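Table S2 (continued). Query chain:
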Amino acid sequence: MTDSRSRHRFDFPDNFELWWSTTYAVPPSSIDEYGHMTAVHYPVVFERAASEFLIHALGTRLPDYVTAELSVVYRHEVLLSRSPTRVYVRPTLLGTTTFRLCVILADATGTPCAQADIRYVAWDHESRTKQAMRPEERASLQRHLDTVT
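Corresponding output:
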């Protein structure tokens, strides 16, 4: 590996295996002709895991947050034969109206395959605009942020 490539190498966060996690069985319909999960299916996996995490962390059935931004780094293919996958979730940033989650997708062998950074915005259903995060929800997310460093 050249010097410039090694400086820009992507590494998964340390200790991500200690984060909150859930499993995800890759459906055969998401596998393409190359035998791996299609790129368009990754956001589905990340959103499902993030929603489960928010329901767990906030203790609510339907969290009042909308996705404002999603970026994905793909490192290894996800194969149907290496399912079910494990998806790890952790808050990384808390603001007044927004927060970020880091989401790691690992295959059944434990190999990390992809990482997403998702920014959510607290949403007011009536006024159809952003709102400040509820103090109790912010505190709950802060506990998850502080748990694993």
